Amino acid sequence: MNSSPHILVVDDDREIRDLITRFLKKNGYRVESAANGREMQAALVAANIDLVVLDRVMPGEDGLELCRNLRKESRVPIILLTLLGSDTDRVVGLEMGADDYVTKPFNPQELLARIKAVLRRANELPVKASARAGRRVRFAGWVLDRVARDLTSPEGALTELTDGEFDLLVAFVEHPQIALTRDQLLDLTRGRSAIAFDRSIDMQMTRLRRKIERDPDQPELIKTIRNKGYIFTPDVTPVED
Amino acid sequence: MNSSPHILVVDDDREIRDLITRFLKKNGYRVESAANGREMQAALVAANIDLVVLDRVMPGEDGLELCRNLRKESRVPIILLTLLGSDTDRVVGLEMGADDYVTKPFNPQELLARIKAVLRRANELPVKASARAGRRVRFAGWVLDRVARDLTSPEGALTELTDGEFDLLVAFVEHPQIALTRDQLLDLTRGRSAIAFDRSIDMQMTRLRRKIERDPDQPELIKTIRNKGYIFTPDVTPVED
DNA sequence: GAGGGGACGTTACAGACCGTTACACGTTTG
DNA sequence: CAAACGTGTAACGGTCTGTAACGTCCCCTC
After folding, report:
1. How far is residue B157's CA from residue B167's CA, in Å, rounded to a whole number?
2. A146's torsion region: left (phi>0), alpha (psi -120 to 50) or beta?
3. A79 neighbourhood in chain B, CB within 8 Å
4. Do A152 and A140 contact (CB within 8 A), yes or no?
5. Spelled out in words, what is the top-level CATH class assigned to the domain B6-122?
6. For A25-68, how does the pLDDT look when each residue is reduced to its tens digit (9 = 90+)?
7. Residue B97 needs a FRET pair 20 to 30 A away by CA distance; which of A216, B4, B149, B211 works?
8. For the domain bounded by B129-238, which CATH number is listed?
9. Residue of B95, B117, B127 lying closest to A124 (CB–CB)
10. Bigger pLDDT: B79 vs B68
11. Start and end residues for every CATH 1.10.10.10 domain found in chain A
């Protein structure tokens, strides 16, 4: 089970993706590729990725932002790929959590060398990133419909959730088995971060748990991690029909 | 016990040495400097160097050669500094064992960011393959679920652990059969190092042992190593199901 | 073998963190 | 406009955790 390193290449330009993919495969790596952030997330869930090569600029998305978000939930090594060569850009990339930085146009041999250098140092536990599935997903017997915004219990009853509770649950379902901080949850549900420290997430958690946990005093679906936040523990699978 | 990282700057140009030295010191590092290979060796012997910043070109000596020789006898992280910017030179540098590469003229902030990135990697502990994979692992009959954050005893009973105890146990399970210092454990569990010496790990150890050791007075799973730290002795295997 | 010092185990306790209730405020609904 | 509803804030209490302090054990020295 311990075969060659698994690299994920994220770039919107198909030619570049294919070029890098072929080159890396020829050098003994397993390679996945993705054209945008969503595909990247999917690939991270599907495969056990050892390193991400991420384009800094993609239409409609910011590679830097992806990098920072990825670093929040995972410690997968990241190499940023970019056209911009200014010093400040490099610094920002590294501060955002990237492990290294290669400017386009690049010599494939240099990319290879940097991948080797980063992998040599990177021995840490890969953490699964979020699962973005389809319209409906199932977890622990519950079925959640993201479009209709309703939730069906294992017994088949429709469970009434307020908007806030629903958004919170969606955030968890989209990031299962990862500890999420209150700040991340605020960001995911309200699109903002806490300015000062804030207990509103705690309140929503209490309310959500009352509705979906068998025993809210001993929660099984969403556990608390002191000093960190919360973690959603069930497996999430898409519902086909 | 654990003070600021110790950087060795090797460059024949005194102005550059002083510039880098002052800049790094201002940013909280301890700095040594050397003008040639011999002084470098002397400094490495005299002080406990955490990272070497090494000039690629020095009169009468080749930084690359120094780098390769250094790598033969030591795993100290190396950042190469150079005027040459051609791709092949970069590749050669990284192949020679350098961890990173900065071209002159460089932005001091970038050097700083790269030093941070390299040190972050260098100080991480290798993770055993056995512990990498699964959500659940078994050791000495116990089963630990890292996502659900619970622990089942050999008798099948659920053992209640607090978050701090659980994090500590996870750190051990991910690094079995290696002596871990208190500082490493703090880093693994809290993501920080001890500023001053700290007994909090000892307390958590007491509490954890009370819950998982048959006889806490004569621990079998986690042994104390005087003047070092603790070691987790059982084998760890993934649980498939 | 006595004495001393350092390292570790452990107890006691204060403060931080979190779950929860009560309530106030704003928004929607009839 | 009143009532119902949703959501954030304040505050209380329980649990968890780091710190201080003390005791014990081990090793070193003399």
Report:
1. 20
2. alpha
3. none
4. no
5. alpha beta
6. 888 787 888 888 777 876 665 555 778 898 876 666 676 777 77
7. B4
8. 1.10.10.10
9. B127
10. B79
11. 136-238
- Cβ B139 vs Cβ B235: under 8 Å: yes
Distance, CA of B104 to CA of A88 (rounded, Å): 15
Beta strands B51-55 and B78-82: pairing type?
parallel
Highest CATH level, class, for A6-121: alpha beta
> Which ipTM did the prediction report?
0.57
How confident is the model at residue A168, as a pLDDT? 94
| A204 closest CA partner among A167, A176, A175 | A167
| DSSP structural state of residue A156 | S
- The strand C neighbours among B residues 184-223, by Cβ under 7 Å, are 199, 202-203, 205-206, 209, 216-217
Sign of the Cα pseudo-torsion (A219, A222, A225, A228, in order): negative
Residue ranges, comma separated, of all CATH 3.40.50.2300 domains in chain B are 6-122
Pick the CATH number of A136-238 from 3.40.190.80, 1.10.10.10, 3.10.520.10, 2.60.120.380: 1.10.10.10
**String of DSSP letters for chain B:** -----EEEEE-S-HHHHHHHHHHHHHTT-EEEEESSHHHHHHHHHHS--SEEEEESEETTEEHHHHHHHHHHH----EEEEES---HHHHHHHHHTT-SEEEESS--HHHHHHHHHHHHHHHTSPP--HHHHS-SEEEETTEEEETTTTEEE-TTSPEEP--HHHHHHHHHHHHSTTSEEEHHHHHHHHHSS--SS---HHHHHHHHHHHHH-SSTTS-SSEEEETTTEEEE-S--EE---
A-chain CB neighbours of B122 within 8 Å are 121
Inter-chain touch B109–A87, beta carbons under 8 Å: yes
Separation between Cα atoms, residue B147 and residue A163, nearest integer Å: 27
For the beta carbon of residue B187, count every other beta carbon within 10 angstroms: 19
The token duo for A206 is 């209490």
When pLDDT is averaged across residues A109-121 and rounded to a whole number, the result is 78
